[in-house]
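[audit] Reproducing an earlier prediction to check determinism. Same input, same settings, fresh worker. If the C-alpha cells differ from the archived copy the diff job will pick it up downstream; this log only records the rerun itself.
[audit] input (239 residues):
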Amino acid sequence: MIGQIEALRRQRMTGPAIARALGMPRSTVGLILRRLGLGKLSALDPKVPIVRYERAAPGEMIHLDIKKLGRFRVEGHRVTGDRQAGRSRKAGWDFLHVCVDDASRLAYTEVLPSEGQADTTAFLERAIAWLGRHGVVVQRVMTDNGSAYRSKLFAKALQAAGARHVRTRPYTPRTNGKAERFIQTSLREWAYGRPYACSEDRARAIKPWTDSYNLERPHSGIRGLTPWQRVNNLLGNDT
C-alpha cells in the first residue's frame, strides 16, 4: 500500500486524490506521505544546485545593498529588559548602505537617512572613490531592482565611473548573496551585537566595526584571510 501511495504521489497526485483512488482515509495518506518525505508536492522537484562563484580580481564586481533599521531615542529592551522600551513609531528609520567587493570581501559601509536615489547614488560614488584609494578599479556593480538603483541619477554615476550595472534576477536575492551575507554578519555583530543608548550611537559604531571586519576578522570564504590581506594579495601588494 505504501508503494502505491508513493507511486501515485510521483504522478503528482494530491493527498486527497490518492485517498479517493485507494479508498483510504485522507489522514492516513497524509501521514504516510510525510513519513516518505513527500508531504509537499514541491518535494518531487529537483533541488536547484547552489552555484558558487568568485571573481578573480578586486573590482571585477562589487555588490551593493541596503538594510532598513529602526531609529530609537531611548535604550531598547536589550538594555532594559522591557519589551515596551525602545523604538518609537515616530523615531523614523536609518538605512545601512553596504558595498562588498566580490573577490576580496573588502567592505565599505555608511548609515544614511534614506534609501532614495540621491543618498544611494552618493554612496555609490563614495564607495567607488574609497575602493580606488586602495587600488581597486570597479568594473561592474551588482544591485537588486530597487527604485533608487534603477534611477537615471544612479545610471549617470555608473557611466561616469565606467562601470557596468548588473541587476539580480527578480525574486532571486541569492544572486547578490555576498552583500546579503555581509548584512547578516553586520546585524549580528554590530547592530545587535552590543547594547546602544540610542540609534546615533549605533550609527557611529559602524565605521570602527567595518574597519575591524576588513583588517582583523578572518573570513572562511577567502581561506581564513582578512579582506585587507586578500585584496592586497590579489593586487600583488605587500600587506
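[audit] rerun output stored. Observation attached for the diff report: The longest helix spans residues 117-133.
[audit] end
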